[in-house]
Amino acid sequence: MQKDNSTFRQKAMLRSKALLELERPVILETHGGLGKLYASCYSEFPDGVVFEKDSAKSSVLAKQRPTWAVYETDCVRAMAAGVGSHLPVNFVDFDPYGGPWFCMDAFFEGLKPTVPKLVLVVHDGLRERLKMHVAWITEGLQNVVDRMGNAAIYENYLDVCKGLVKEKAAKAGYSLRRWTGYYGRPAERPEGQIGEAPGWNATHYAAMLERVR
């Protein structure tokens, strides 16, 4: 799936507001790309971790953020192995090409966070696929399909996301204290575009979690 940045302004605004939840953000970016979000939102913060599989892009990220740990690797495998746990990460930016659920599991299970307050921000591209009603064969959603049925997932995906974040957080010893989420709405429809514009099925959300055990 091609990465969609048609709602970048909304993504940056969501992250800027979420950063206000923390006195000293220590950031982990699961997919660094070419560092556009870093330049817009994270450049003032000296402590962070970023993953990027593409070697050309990871070289750009290393030059862009000399005080961060930059890893040229698959983020799921790396986080599952505990890469990034040398820092007390308290702000995680999930920006995958599709769904975030394998990434989120790898973060909680591999890094095992214990910080008192943890903020998650997500650009979730999975809903573009879900409009074809294939939730039953989609990463991380099989248990939700068993509860809700396949047909209900697309229309209620924001509620699905909130429920999954609460479940995963609870297993890691966190409770959900604040939540915001919306579906992407690009500011302009490309000329000649009929139907949904790119980004209309993107799902954006942020969760503030607090440690309870």
Notes on the protein architecture:
The protein is an alpha/beta fold and 213 residues long. 34% of the residues lie in helices and 19% in strands. β1, α2 and β2 form a beta-alpha-beta unit.
Indicate the topology.
Layout: H1 8-19, E1 27-29, H2 36-42, E2 48-51, H3 55-64, E3 69-71, H4 75-80, E4 91-94, H5 101-111, E5 117-124, H6 127-130, H7 142-148, H8 157-171, E6 174-183, E7 203-211
Parallel strand pairs: 1-2, 1-4, 2-3, 4-5
Antiparallel strand pairs: 5-7, 6-7
Shape: globular
- Indicate the percent of residues in helices: 25-40%
Structural class: alpha/beta
Major sheet, described briefly? 7 strands, mixed
Helix tally equals 8
Which series of helices and strands comes N to C? HEHEHEHEHEHHHEE
Poorly predicted tracts of residues: 187-198
* Percent range for β-strand residues: 15-25%
End-to-end gap: 38 Å
**Rg value:** 17 Å
